[in-house]
Give the backbone structure.
Amino acid sequence: MTPATERYDATSNESAPPKPASRLILTLLKRSRGAFTLAIAACVLNGVASVTLVATLNRALSQPSSADSTLAWRFALCAVVALATRIVSGVLFARLSQDTMAQLRERVAKRVATAELRDVERIGAAPVQSVLTDDATNVSMLFFALPNIVMHGSIVCGCLAYLAWLSLPVCLLALTAIVVGSFGYYTGDKRAIASLEAAGKSQDKLFGYLGALFTGAKELKLHQARATQFVDGQLGLAIGEVRDHRRRAFSAYAVGVGWIIFVFYVFLGAAAFWPSLGVRADTPAAAGYVIVFLFMLVPLDGLLNNLPTVNAARVSLDRIEKVMAEFGGLSTADVQTPPSSSASQASFKTLTLRGVTHSYFHERDERMFRIGPVDLTFRPGELVFIVGGNGSGKTTLAKVLTGLYEPEGGVIEVDGKPVGSLERPAYRERFTAVFNDFHLFDALLGIVDPNDPSRAQADARANALIGKLALDHKVQVVDGAFSTRALSTGQRKRLALVIAYLEDRPFYLFDEWAADQDPAFKAVFYEQLLPELRLAGKTVVVITHDDRYFPLADRVLKLDNGSIVSETYGPEPALANG
């Protein structure tokens, strides 16, 4: 089991209970109420037309003298209506299926995007990948099953009503068969749902291992025994668990469907051979029962075979709600964001940490690790280095400083005003950060609008920066996107620096940015780029181990075991506004 999956499983029982699946599906259908209503109406009309068609056929066969042109035209009209309504409902439900899957993926993606970083790191990608693919597909398949369920259900109900008109005892016998068969089906249904839920949990593990198959590709290729144990062992077991759980689920459904069909065969035998029903003395009536029963048998089988799809969708909807509840966080309507991310609106005179603390589980030492209490003040136009050994809390402090982690104690203030949970999203807009585990997107997202006719100017500025960073022979920005990201880690960090320059925010943070650069470019970074940002009035914080460049900083903060143990000042005073 991957660490991300372990974290998810460990906390899944502590989360708030998910909303009912029906509530989520109703929310998703709000934008398509008209189409959904029309599709359901078409399915019901199809069922009515189909039952009328078989009744007309039965009358024509049992009473040849009444088989005139009127019955023929009625039969033809019913056939056309059945065809048209099936096509209409099929097209509408196909659209609803894809629209619903898209909406589900959008909702989950937005929830992850607005969640706190701690929740994103705790849950990991595997459960989200699972609900965005397998579970979203299960929900979309519901809309392929619904037309069959409604149409087949309408046909079965119509056939029962027609049986009641022909013979009430035979109809009661058919209802008894349905009730008896349903009890057996329900027992298998409970086992099937339990197996589907277990399959969903195994699916989370499977996606975690599939991610490791790519992120650990180097380690697997360097060690054949490790690769064999991983692929045949951990990954293979996860694949087998999903397979076995789903086998049990759909086998239970197959047994249930077979049981109900068998019970109906018993009903047919009773209707044909039970003398007290009076069927044997009335051959035309017996033929009518057989025709109606045989016509009902196919839609009944189709109805039952589509119920597993409904149950799988229900289980998936519950899983989706559970994952979304795990992420929690604020809704997009609650957060306070500035009308623009321009530097002037995000500018500040002082940014202060007062008694800030934060705790997290330190995996290397298997204990809770605490940083703080930290008391720091940052001003525009100063360059601050944060130094310390590995595991001393430098990156965690940086995440608290930038608003990615919420302080457990103390407060962060901007110009004397405290930053609360509602203000935190707007507070984060002041920062541009390149962390050690940064991600480079393939386009200048949030910087260049693809529909802006002046984007060529942004491309030119980006390419000028790329040339300044000696990457113009490798990559270019075309229409707001990088021509390639197939670069070394150090080169991709330079592209991240290009994006940082283009964002033009008042506070810059670099986490071990120079660790992957050659000595010549390290010198460019420390001696040219950082002083340029400081002279531009930016606050610059650099996490670094390059002690030869410590004298360039206005302040050097040393962390040890989560606490600032020393603060030294450089030869030049910091530039401060106000």
Observations:
- The chain has two domains: 19-324, 339-439+484-567.
- The chain has a mean pLDDT of 79.
- The chain is about 60% helix and 10% strand.
- The CA atoms of residues 119 and 314 lie 25 Å apart.
